[in-house]
Amino acid sequence: MRLSASDIARFTGGMLVVPPAHEESLVAGFTWDSRQVQPGCLYVALPGERHDGFDFCINALDAGAACLLVMRSPDEALTLCAQRSGAAIVCVEDTFTAFTDLAAAWRSRLSGSVIAITGSSGKTTTKNLVRDVLARAGSVVATQGNQNNELGVPATLLRAEEDTQFVVVEMGMRGRGQIESLCRFVRPDMALVTNVGESHIELLGSRDGIARAKAEIIAGVKANTGIAFINASDDFASMLPAYGSADERGVEILFFDGSGKEPASYAAQDGIEVPSTFASDIELDEAGCARFTLHTPTGTASVHLALAGLHNVHNATAAAAVGSQVGLSASVIVDALEKATSLDGRGRVVRTASGVVVVDDAYNANPDSMKASLGSFAAMHFAGRHIAVLGDMGELGDTAEEAHARIGSLVASLPIDLIICVGSLACGIARAAVAAGMPEDAAICVTDASAALDQVVSLVNAGDGILVKASHSVGLEAVVKGLVK
């Protein structure tokens, strides 16, 4: 973002209460954290539960901020400080709203393509893969980490330059209308839905409700020129285009598939066309990483991912679908996919000095991602045992007990030797696993992450493999850190 203080005031509907020393100077970049101010940037004074960003305006000016975006009139001390440093102050009614308005205005100046991504699971990994693939075609800005909410989405747009060729925006969702609201200012050229699962079912009531909320991203794509990528193997693949009014708005639907299913079998299914990008001949190596043949409209090539898990075949084919749409050859796409590695908490494999293999999938969990992670973990080869540390899955509402029980039944059917279940809901996993035939002494329940770590440390041997997975609120990253130490 590079804008004058006058532009910032105009785009946000604010008042330029303190003009800059040099009207022609541009404000470059932004932050809402006074500790991260860079010289010449915009400091957005956001109110918070614990701290009010307005209280740190002088700190921001001292660090070199060129403009302050505030929602209270500056007092004499702040005004004098801004004037001494040559900085501007723009006063608005609400800094959150103003920040979004600023992103909406900046979006109009972007000349490249904007790709929006949502889904119940796999959003962040798919976003990273799309970013890495598109980097082979031009300059890319993508959502940092999982900053996919009402603050992170506008921030992604504002980090792009006017001539950035691709902007990849991850969109989270906690209720109906949220993605629609984000799309109003993101105005994506392309949209991608990874899948429709059970995450947030507590808020939306059913998977159908979740599908309709996810489909808002399709409805938000530019009419007549927009493209939406949909996972053909998802239960709601045939419904998403209708839920997103794709036909009425002239949005092109392109299907991808990482299941290994024969593409021609989709031809007979109402509402699903033969996937244009798909995987075949899928197999896992001893580390649980997939080898497969990737088929795209721009060619076919063999792939060997460094990411563990069959679910990453879906994520990879999704990214390949986007890459082929912008004209990249299959070989170029594959080169990008094979260089991708896992992030902390998202399937990262760590080999400790004591000879234990830790699969760190502790960042988050829902029934679909838990099922995928367990299946991939069970397929991995270890000299010792398969041990799974599983915590509560949150935001499942009335379906929570049943969802955890289903995971327990799944565990009992897999070659997993021991489970340590963390939290009251996760203990339902242990009970269901025992009911399905797992030995009672192989299913342990504990109350928190600290107790889980104590149990693991007392039981683990060199050569064992340990999967750690739960919703973020359970805090199982502490188990990973303890094991890695």
TrEMBL record:
Record-annotated membrane-spanning stretches: none
Domain Mur ligase C-terminal per the UniProt entry, residue ranges: 345-471
Name of protein: UDP-N-acetylmuramoyl-tripeptide--D-alanyl-D-alanine ligase
Main location: cytoplasm
EC number per UniProt: 6.3.2.10
Reaction(s) catalysed (UniProt annotation): D-alanyl-D-alanine + UDP-N-acetyl-alpha-D-muramoyl-L-alanyl-gamma-D-glutamyl-meso-2,6-diaminopimelate + ATP = UDP-N-acetyl-alpha-D-muramoyl-L-alanyl-gamma-D-glutamyl-meso-2,6-diaminopimeloyl-D-alanyl-D-alanine + ADP + phosphate + H(+)
Top EC class of this enzyme: ligase
Start and end residues of each Mur ligase N-terminal catalytic domain: 29-73
Gene Ontology terms: cellular component: cytoplasm
Organism: Cryptobacterium curtum (strain ATCC 700683 / DSM 15641 / CCUG 43107 / 12-3)
Pathway: Cell wall biogenesis; peptidoglycan biosynthesis
Binding site for ATP: 119-125
Compartments (UniProt record): Cytoplasm
Alphabetical list of SUPFAM superfamilies matching this protein: MurD-like peptide ligases, catalytic domain, MurD-like peptide ligases, peptide-binding domain, MurE/MurF N-terminal domain
Mur ligase central domain mapped to chain residues: 117-322
InterPro entries in alphabetical order: Mur-like_cat_sf, Mur_ligase_C, Mur_ligase_C_dom_sf, Mur_ligase_cen, Mur_ligase_N, MurCDEF_CellWall_CoF430Synth, MurE/MurF_N, UDP-N-AcMur_synth
Pfam families assigned to the protein according to its UniProt record, in alphabetical order: Mur_ligase, Mur_ligase_C, Mur_ligase_M
Keyword Nucleotide-binding (UniProt): yes
